[in-house]
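Schema walkthrough. Field components (list of strings):
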Amino acid sequence: MSAISNVMRRELTGYFATPVAYVFLIIFLVMTGIFAFYLGNFYERGFADLNPFFRFHPWLYLFLVPAISMRLWAEERRSGTIELLLTLPLTTMQAVLGKFLAAWLFIGLALVLTLPMWLTVNYLGSPDNGVILAAYLGSWLMAGGFLAIGSCMSALTRNQVVAFILSIVVCFLFLLSGLPMVMNLFIGWAPQIVLDGIASLSFLKHFADISKGVIDLRDLVYFTLVIGFWLLANVLILDIKKAD
Amino acid sequence: MIEAKSLCKSYGGFKAVDDLSFTVEAGQVLGFLGPNGAGKSTTMKMLTGFLAPTSGTALVNDIDVVEQSVAARRNIGYLPEGAPSYGEMTVLQFLTFIAHARAIAKSEVPESVENAIRKLNLTGVKHQPIETLSKGFKRRVGLAQAIIHDPQILILDEPTDGLDPNQKREVRGLIRAMAKDKIIIISTHILEEVEAVCNRVMIIAEGRLLADDSPQGLIKRSRYHNAVSLVVEAPEKVASSLSELPQVAKAELREGELTLFPTADEGLFEAVTAAIGENHWQVSALRLEAGRLDEVFHSITRKEASA
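Field assembly_structure (string):
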C-alpha cells in the first residue's frame, strides 16, 4: 500500500511542478462553464439542476483525459525513468495503480473546483442535491474509465502524441458503442448477443443512468470492470514490453 | 553473492546475451568490459529484474531474480545507463521518493537522504530541479539514488560516462571506498577505469564471455608484458644488434621508439641495459612494459569478430 501511495505522491508532485496541472485545471473549468452556459442553456432552461453541466462531461473528457494520461507511461519510456521505476522493489501493478490514482485524484480535484456551479444552482433554486452528488460520482467514475484506457495506450509508445491519439480513438469507440454510428458496423453479421454486449459497453448509457440520480449497482460494477480491465492490460503491456 | 546461470536474452533472432554464467563474491569489484552493443547493459537489466531472461536465471543473495523479482531488487542499488531521473523534481524530492520506495523506515529517511547528498557532494544543489543541473551533477544524483539504502550489491551502468576527469576520479574514489564487503558491478568501455577500480574483469562481446580475469592477469596476456621500450640514437642499428640477444624474440620500431619483445628466457631488461652500457648508445628513454590492456582487449574482441 505504501508503495502505491509513494508512487502516487511523486506523480502528483510532478503535475504541480510543471504548468501542466494549472493549464489543465483552468481549461477544464473554462470549458465546463462554456458548455453548461452556452450549449446547455443553463439559465434559459429555468430548471434548478446541473444537467446542462454534466451532459457535456463525456465529450470534455474525450479530449482532456487523454491529455492527462498520455504522459503517464510514454514519458517514462522517453526519459528512461521506466528502468529506474521498475527496478525499485515494487510490482508493476503497484506502479500502474500509483500513477493511475494520481491522475484520477487530479481529475477529482478538477471536479471539486467546479463546486461554484453547485453553489450557484442552490442559490437560484432548490435542486435535488442527491442527484447532483450521484452525477458527480458518475462523472468521476467515467473519468476513471477514460483514464484507464489512456494509461494503457500510453504504455504502448514512447511518443506522447501517439498515446494521445490512440487514447482518443479507443475512448471514442467506448463512448459511442451504443450509438448507430458504431452499431451499424456490426448489425447484419454479428449475432444479437454480441450486439447487446457492444451496446452495453457504452460510457454514455451508463453515465446517463447515474447522472439522473439512479445509482445502479450494475453501472458501478461496469465502470469498475472497465477500469480494472484496462489497468490489467496496462500491466501486461509493461511486463511484455519494458524496454522500448 | 550473485550467481548467473546460463543467462540468455534474444530479441527475435538476435542473441543479445548468449549463455552467460558467472559468480560474484562479496568484496569483488567486477568490470564488464566490451564494445558497444556487447550485451553488458542487457545483462545488468536482467540482474536487476528489469528484463526477464529468455532462458536461464540469476540468484542474488540466493533469491531468484525471475521468481522473486521484487525481493531480489531489495538487495540491489542500480544506476541505469544514462542515469535517468525525474527532471521536474528537486534533488531532495527525488531522493526522498527513492528512499521511501526503498522501504527505508520513515524516521530514517531524512538522514539517509542527507547521507547520500553528502557522499556525492550535492549539498549546494539539493533544492534545484534535476533538469536544470549539468550532466555531471545528474550522474551524481543517479549514483546517490543507487546507494541511498546502502545496498549490499551495486550495479552501475557506465557510472562515469560524461563526467570530466576530476569528477571521474571522485566517482572512482567513491566506488573504491564502498567496495569493502560489497559486490559492485560496473560496465564500461573505458580501459583505464577497469585498472583504476576493478579487481576482476569480464570481457564480453556479442553476448558471450570471452575472458574472466583480474586486470593484472589480463595485462599479463599482452604481448607487451615484460617488453622493453627505448628511445635511442640510430635505432635501426641498435635494433639489429639487439636482435642478436637470446632474450629478444622480436624488435619493432615505431615512431622513433624501439620495442623489444621477450622470448621465454628471463632477464630481457638486464640484458638490454648491459648492452647499452657496453656499446655506449645514447639512450634518452628506457622502460619496462607492464603490458597494454587496450591491446589485450583489442586482440580478444577482434579474434571473436573474425572467428
